[in-house]
Each structure stands twice: as C-alpha cells, then as structure tokens.
C-alpha cells in the first residue's frame, strides 16, 4: 500500500497515510517448555517480549509474529490508522443511514423519479 504516493528524494517515510493494518498487537512473554530453562522457574516472566498480531479472519483468530524492534514501531501506526479508518467509515455509514431514512419520509419529486427510471 502507499506505492502510488511519491515522496521527495532522500526522504523515506516510516509509513504512509494509506497503510492500514487490521488486528491487535500484543506483547507477551513466553515459556519455551524446556524443563531446565530459567523460564520454568515459578515467577520467571519467561522469554520476550514477543509481539503477536492477532485478527479474526472468517471467524478464526489468525496470529502473526511481529519481530521485536523496528517492525513493532512500524506496525503500530498502521494498526492505529486502520482503527481510525474503521471509526470514520462507521460514522459515514451512520450518517448515510440517517439520510436514507430521512429521504424515505419525503416524497420523491417527479424529476427524481424520472432520473431513477421509476
Ligand atoms: Zn525458556
């Protein structure tokens, strides 16, 4: 995404306004399962942080691992942008629904009916 945008030479944006990524990013410590590892000790936080990006696809939760470091910083604005986009589209649909409802309450003019082939 964002490939159609051009930026001045020498600038390299971390993300563009068009990068939308759905999902929930969570950092987790994990246990490797080896009995002699420090992570097997009670109270040990485990290995980490590891970052997981989860999202629902066809009613199933799909998890992707995001490598710790720059990838996390790069993903966060993309996830934020997607949330903003979802919020805005939700608002747009709400307004549109109100307008559709209002339009039903006022009779269609002959000109409008003709334009719509009714
Ligand atoms: Zn371990």
Polypeptide structure, described:
It is a single chain. This protein is an alpha+beta fold. It has one domain. The chain is 36% helix and 21% strand. It has two helices and three strands, in the order E-E-E-H-H. The chain has helices at 70-105, 110-115; strands at 24-30, 47-57, 60-66. The protein has a three-stranded antiparallel beta sheet, with helices on one face. The radius of gyration is 24 Å and the shape is elongated. The mean pLDDT is 86. The structure holds zinc ion. Zinc ion binds at residues 31-32, 34, 37, 39, 47.
- The average pLDDT score comes to 86
Helix residue percentage: 25-40%
* Uncertain ranges: none
The SSE string, one letter per element, is: EEEHH
Q: Characterize the main sheet.
A: 3 strands, antiparallel
Give the tally of β-strands: 3
Q: What would you call the structural class?
A: alpha+beta
Strand order of the largest sheet: 1-2-3
- End-to-end C-alpha gap: 41 Å
- Taking all Cα atoms into account, the compactness measure Rg is 24 Å
Strand content: 15-25%
The number of distinct structural domains comes to: 1
Task: Give a quick rundown of the structure.
Helix content is 36%, strand content 21%.
Helices and strands in order:
Elements: E1 24-30, E2 47-57, E3 60-66, H1 70-105, H2 110-115
The protein binds zinc ion.
């Amino acid at each position: 995404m964002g490939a159609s945008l051009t930026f001045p030479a020498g600038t390299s944006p971390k993300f563009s306004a068009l990068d939308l990524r759905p999902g929930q990013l969570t950092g987790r410590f994990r246990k490797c399962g080896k009995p002699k590892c420090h992570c097997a000790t009670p109270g040990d936080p485990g290995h980490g942080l590891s970052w997981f990006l989860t999202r629902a696809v066809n009613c199933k939760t799909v998890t992707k691992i995001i490598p710790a470091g720059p990838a996390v910083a790069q993903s966060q604005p993309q996830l934020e942008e997607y949330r903003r986009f979802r919020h805005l589209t939700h608002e747009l649909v709400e307004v549109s629904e109100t307008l559709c409802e209002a339009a039903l309450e006022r009779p269609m003019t002959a000109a409008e009916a003709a334009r719509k082939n009714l």
